[in-house]
Amino acid sequence: MSKLEMKLCGDLVLRRQCTPVDAITPDILDTMDEMVRMMRAQNGVGLAAPQIGDTRRFLVMMTPDDEMVYRMINPRIVEYGPKTCVMEEGCLSVLGGDDLPVFANVTRPEMVTVEWTDESGASRAAQMSGLAARIVQHETDHLDGKLFIDYLSPVRREMVMRKVRKHKA
Ligand SMILES: [Zn+2]
Known about the structure:
Layout: H1 26-41, E1 46-48, E2 58-63, E3 68-80, E4 84-89, E5 104-109, E6 111-117, E7 123-129, H2 130-143, H3 154-164
Antiparallel strand pairs: 1-2, 2-3, 3-6, 4-5, 6-7
Zinc ion binds next to helix 2.
């Protein structure tokens, strides 16, 4: 049982612009550990601070192929590759009537370069492609109050929202 509560689509905390972290406190490290546990428990591959109601810029994510876990503080996507690709996305904050994430196809850049501060305070940078690039874009979007459904056409978005409205709070 997690002590953190998942915030769901419709909660305004998911629409807030998050504030940069200026010091890595034990509270942030503990919260990130708890978020990793939550992410794994719900078979997710990423979780951003606003999803548990914290409006500071940090996230956790996992690359499914090698199960490498990243704890990113103040992540920034500094470069986007020229090619885009379509992938199916879901979100632990966007659930349907069956209490499971609702999925939809989203077009995004296929490759990104991301910079962040890790849990030890070190500056890190990585070029990511494929699923890792997808996850990091989805999660950093959360820190700017953006959800994957924002990229959908009005018709597609309504199809998703119809399912979301069946989710009982
Ligand atoms: Zn999400």
